[in-house]
Design goal:
about 190 residues; alpha/beta; Rossmann fold; 5 strands; about 55% helix
Length: about 190
Amino acid sequence: MKLKLYLGVSIFTSYFEDFKSKAIDTLFLEIKKDNFWGFYSLLTLEELSSLPSPLKENTFNLISETKLYLCEFNPEDIAELTNAYLSEKIIAPEMELSACHFAIATINEMDIFVSVDTTYAANEILYRRFKKINQKFGYVKTPEIRMPEEITGIPGPYQNLKLIYQSRKQKYEKMKEENLSLLDFLNSLLKKKF
């Protein structure tokens, strides 16, 4: 059975690290070989669009060159599940978009949420907390949270993670400054051209 992988934003930026992990290369190669189904979302595109050049263009090219599928989502469902994660204080409020990615992966019934970010995503304790909330909302399947190394068996370092953190914090601050709800932000993604 082929696994459905939701690729966190860190997976795309990590592909372009100065000291790129062989695990990342292998992961994309396995997706290209059709050994896994790879998925991303409009939120992924939104976050990647705020990266500096040429990293931004490189990540978009990587998506178009790899056989990846776009996850559909209903903004109301994503916002509701994300807000449940936040109300349980699973992750800090300024990492709201991180929780959105996990909600998208959950609602789309992904097998694995792939991330290199051990701070909040590739973490077994958080997985169990996400799972508990997902079950309360009737989602039977919670994606496992894994790093590329766990999928491919090949280790490696990461540097571009700080760009994602900066971007998420800036988006969070801008949303709060503009009094833009998560639901309004998610709805705006459906109208945005990338």
